[in-house]
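WARN no homologs supplied; continuing
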Amino acid sequence: MFEDMDEKYEGITTYKIGEVASRANVNKETVRYYEERELIPKPDRRRSGYRIFTQRHVNQIKFIKRAQQLGFTLSEIKELLELRLDKETSCSEIKEEARQKYQDITQKIKDLRQIQDTLVDLIDSCSEGGPIADCPILNALEGENQTGRELRQ
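OK structure emitted
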């Protein structure tokens, strides 16, 4: 059995987990986590018990990290990876996933701008000189003024 496994990897560069992590610019715990979440294929094991990773693992981890940088969650990335492996998937399906992510990000930006505007209003409302009991920022967070009532909605 082990001879067959060794033959399977003859001529293919294999890596230990630390080497994969280094090549993919992540830590070993990330590799283990992605394996646990089934984002990367479960590697075979050598007789010694070491897992056998290949360049495919490195490439897939890099894919995951790039997708995360674009705002995709690990669940969404798993779905993208599954679509990638499905021969029936069309480019339009991937485009739709990207379009949905774009809409999500656009909404998040809108929400963040609203938070930013509210924070500017709170900062501008504070004269810095009064007693803490009259602090408009704390009063807003406690819901004690107009801004605070708006935050509760």
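Strands lie at 44-45, 51-52.
OK
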